[in-house]
Amino acid sequence: MLDTIRAGTGMSTATAGLLTTLPLLCFGLLAPFAPRLGRRLGMEPALLLTMVAICCGTALRLIPSMAALLGGTVVVGAGIAVANVLLPGVIKRDFAHRVGLMTGLYSMSLFGGAALAAGVTVPVGHALSLGWRPTLALWGLLAVVALLVWAPQVRRHTRASAARAGAARHPVRGLWSHPVAWLVTGYMGLQSLSYYAAAAYLPTMLTDAGTAQSTAGWMLSFSSLLGIAGAFLSPVLAARGVRPGLLAAIGAVLTAGGFAGMATAPVGGAYLWMILLGLGQGAAISLAMLFIVDRSPDTRHAAQLSSMAQCFGYLLAATGPLALGAVHQATGGWTVPLIILIVLLVPQTAVGLGASVNRHAAPEQRDAGG
């Protein structure tokens, strides 16, 4: 779809790169403001506002101008950024006894949406004989449906939220200096860097090795589909008694195997490498969300820990594709970039093991458990 947009607008490569980087920058830069919005409006109205923003941003991109395209992307990114931060708090508040299952379903929906969008956007546009602008706008219909489904929740929770408003309006102090918060943040940042850097270049790695472009694109979608399974299973297994630290280590080993395979035999074992990467990276993303919920004693802490972790994580992730591309250009191949990604899995596993210890990132109270 990006190539179609470039052809239709005449945008430069740099502008195309900005278009793909803008959402990540929104996720990182706007994450710190989400808890404040949630405290001021309440969780349900704030989430309703994010859906309105996504609808408006999607509609804005129908206007035939570069400013509208970039501006609409920022508005959509802002809506998703706030929702990403607040939803772990909702899980903590409403599903405290089913955290593993709900985190798995939430993470699975993130992977499923990405895989669905990557796989069907272009075919649907061709089947309906639509241009790229209306085709992108079709995804706004899902936001409209979500808005209609969520709207009754706002009225239902208004009375209950008012009763909790006194405590919830006060921010958590000292979180940015708490060691547990930084372990969770470090895991979110390193797994985000690994995922987005790999996703940006996996098709290119395959085509450089001789794979057809259409096949390379399908391989990325195939990996995302396997990521759905990894994202769902890891928090569910954690809820059933499997140590989260062990799951973090297994996810890193699977991911390392995928990267090593891409460095040594990218074409011959492509399906196996995509399976390993999908399962490993899917598990890591879901565990990052689980750590946010489990290391928070209440909704207020969950929203602010989510804000901290996602701010750092997505800003770090935004540098990943740029850094990996620079290393590739300097070395003339993909072996060194892949080795770097494998090496980064070591500190990712280390902070994952630390974040898996049962204690809270709660500066205002003594850590619980050990």
What does this structure look like?
This protein has helices at 2-9, 13-30, 34-41, 43-60, 66-94, 99-127, 132-138, 140-168, 179-208, 213-239, 244-264, 270-294, 299-331, 335-355. It is mainly alpha-helical. It has one domain: Up-down Bundle (Growth Hormone, Chain: A), CATH 1.20.1250. The longest helix has 33 residues, at 299-331. 47% of the residues are buried.
Q: In terms of topology, how is this protein built?
A:
Elements: H1 2-9, H2 13-30, H3 34-41, H4 43-60, H5 66-94, H6 99-127, H7 132-138, H8 140-168, H9 179-208, H10 213-239, H11 244-264, H12 270-294, H13 299-331, H14 335-355
Characterize this entry briefly.
The chain is an all-alpha fold.
State the CATH architecture.
Answer: Up-down Bundle
Please, what is the CATH homologous superfamily?
MFS general substrate transporter like domains
Low-pLDDT ranges: 366-370
Order of helices and strands: HHHHHHHHHHHHHH
- Please tell me how large the radius of gyration is: 20 Å
The CATH topology assignment is: Growth Hormone, Chain: A
Main features:
Growth Hormone, Chain: A; 370 residues; 14 helices; 0% strand; 82% helix; mainly alpha; globular
